[in-house]
Design brief:
293 residues, mainly beta, Immunoglobulin-like, five-stranded antiparallel β-sheet, 23 strands, 54% strand, rod-shaped
Length: 293
């Protein structure tokens, strides 16, 4: 009997094959499914062939399968620290997201680097989420203050590789240096000037705030060498002066000075001189009462 038709079914779609008189075979050019076969059994689509002769007899063959791969790359993103940020801990928690809506993220392909040094897979944690994988990593060894760069990438199960994600952040765990050289105490001058010097190698520029008895004394100018000064007016008695230097990371150093203003002169009481009169060359005893508030 002659063959009436030959068909192939792929992913629920049936296609007719045409007889080629030259090759003596049935042939067809069809379009692959738009979805990767990774989610199918054994990661392949089954092909079912059905041949029918003119008498109506049919025969099926399902021995063939086809692997269909996606071409869309997965994505990688670093979610913490953020690019351009400043952190104040030397073991910051690093988090990243890897996403692929097709064949899924291949976990063994994930590469995380800190300052171009790869992090061992055993040192970070992976969590399955909808559409991909989340990563969390905390360095075991403290990082040095300064600039750090993190990169992350992955591949999917169909062999597509993501673009590398990259962020650069600054670490500052050290407060600025601060010295206060003036004023001294006690003093009899209400007008005084507080002077000092501050610097921070990691997170310049710094700002300086001065409070006198709890009141902010306003803007402080710092020169290129870190020197600063501020004129103050003291009140009679004890004065609390607090100087705080804060860097761009929010770390600060603080110096407190207590300056006593005393403008009251000493008061004399009884003064005695004995003997009076006294002979030439004789001894004189002087007694003075003097007090100071």
């Amino acid at each position: 009997m002659a063959i009436k038709s030959v068909k192939v079914t792929l992913n629920g779609q049936s296609y007719d094959l045409t007889y080629n008189s030259t090759s003596k075979k049935y042939e067809a050019t069809i379009t692959a499914p738009g979805t990767t076969s990774w989610g199918q059994n054994n990661h392949v689509y089954p092909l079912t062939f059905t041949a029918t002769d003119v008498a109506g007899n049919t025969k099926s063959d399902a021995s063939k399968t086809i692997r269909v791969k996606e071409t869309v790359k997965p994505t990688a993103a670093i979610t913490a620290p953020t690019n351009g940020s400043t952190v104040i801990t030397n073991k910051p928690t690093i988090t990243a997201q890897f996403r692929d809506a097709g064949s899924g993220v291949l976990k063994s392909s994930i590469v995380l680097k800190v300052d171009n040094t790869a992090v061992a897979a055993a040192d970070y944690t992976l969590t399955d989420v909808s559409g991909g994988v989340d990563l969390s990593y905390t360095p075991k060894t403290a990082l040095m203050d300064g600039s750090h760069t993190i990169t992350a990438s992955c591949s999917d199960n169909d062999g597509n590789t993501s673009a590398a994600a990259s962020v650069t952040y600054k670490q500052d765990t050290t407060p600025p240096e601060l010295t206060v050289s003036q004023p001294t105490t006690p003093t009899n001058k209400a007008a005084c000037t507080i002077t000092g010097k501050t610097s921070d190698t990691t997170s310049s520029p710094v700002t300086v705030k001065v409070t006198l008895n709890g009141t902010d004394q306003g803007a402080i100018t710092i020169d290129a060498s870190g020197n600063f000064s501020k004129a103050l007016t003291l009140k009679e008695g004890s004065n609390a002066i607090v100087v705080r230097s804060t860097d761009a990371a929010g770390k600060y150093s603080e110096v407190t000075r207590t300056v006593v203003l005393d403008t009251v002169a000493p008061v004399f009481g009884t003064i005695t001189v004995t003997p009076d009169p006294v002979n030439t060359g004789g001894s004189i005893t002087i007694t003075v009462e003097v007090t100071d508030a």
